[in-house]
Amino acid sequence: MVGTVIGHYRLVERLGTGGMSSVYLAEHTLLGKKVAIKLLHDEYSRDPRVVARFVDEARAAARVRHAGVVDIHDFGRHDDGRAFLVMERLEGESLLRRMQRDGRLAERFIIDIVRQTARALAATHTAGVIHRDLKPANLFLVPDAAQPWGVAVKVLDFGVCRLAEEQSVRITLSGAIVGTPTYMAPEQCRSARNVDPRADIYALGCIAFEMAAGQPPFVEKGLGRMMLAHSIEPPPIHLLDDLVSPPFAAVVASMLQKSPDARPPTMLAVDEALVAAAAARDEARAGIAAHPTIPMQTVDADTLVDATVREPHDAD
């Protein structure tokens, strides 16, 4: 496919391939502008239900005006019938790649990434869009010197999103699992059609947990066991002990509540809770620094008594 012209863009390099589509670096044939093109595989382009979901991705991202959401420039069909999306080109790496390389991440970095993601998703939820497939592979880290940790988050892949105000007409493929089981909320495990924005809050909690602990909350083998764990097993928050501060662990625990009503009600509430958690952590650490441990006083060796030495008896 490299070298093929799709719309006004020539494919320059394949960046990655998934189960349903491939992503290419492309260049406008006249302007030279670089973009990314997601090209649906041929077999799926012949399925109107899959194409409808593909169109949903374009519509969902296009209706959200936020710097933390990938920008969709165009949508169309290639001459061979395959559907494609034209997106902004991003330079950087996915959160998944960062975790694979670095393992567990620093708490301050985690808070920054989760807060940026929460603010971007607050905008998508306000626009009536529920992502339903948040995972580290769908959070892209773009170099940005203006950010505290030098990276800005971009939320990608709205391919299984739900446009909230159109729930009665949304399409779900028969028998398909909508979302990624490792990060799916209990209610999404039961029915992907009946979720609200709090399912995204649960998924973001799973991601925050994984960044801190080096593994997701549940690591069961097999789809059924994984979905059952999300539904009935308590999240192993104890794994965060000694890895992150108690206030931050408490926020993650609240995001991982089984009942949507027990979670923070909105992504903005998540953001506010993280701000409060960071402040509480810093205050606690400042208190410890202000009261250093008093050093042990030096004891004169002559005052030490060896209890194992017997006193000599008087001669008879």
Summarize the structure.
By secondary structure, this protein is α+β, with helices and mostly antiparallel strands.
Structure characteristics:
single chain, 316 residues, alpha+beta, Phosphorylase Kinase, domain 1, Transferase(Phosphotransferase), domain 1, 2 domains, six-stranded antiparallel beta sheet, three-stranded antiparallel beta sheet, 9 helices, 17% strand, disordered C terminus
Task: Describe the overall structure.
Strand 9 and strand 10 form a beta hairpin. The chain has nine helices and eleven strands. It has helices at 42-45, 48-63, 95-102, 107-126, 186-190, 198-213, 223-232, 246-255, 267-290; strands at 5-6, 9-17, 21-28, 34-40, 72-77, 83-88, 93-94, 129-130, 139-143, 151-155, 162-163. The protein is α+β, with helices and mostly antiparallel strands. Helices cover 36% and strands 17% of the residues. It folds into two domains: 5-88, 2-Layer Sandwich (Phosphorylase Kinase, domain 1), CATH 3.30.200.20; 93-289, Transferase(Phosphotransferase) domain 1 (Transferase(Phosphotransferase), domain 1), CATH 1.10.510.10. The model is unreliable at 165-175 and 298-316 (pLDDT under 50). Helix 4 (107-126) runs antiparallel to helix 6 (198-213) and helix 6 (198-213) packs antiparallel against helix 8 (246-255). The termini are far apart. The strands form three sheets. A six-stranded antiparallel beta sheet has the order 1-2-3-4-6-5. A three-stranded antiparallel beta sheet has the order 7-9-10. Strands 8-11 form a two-stranded antiparallel ribbon.
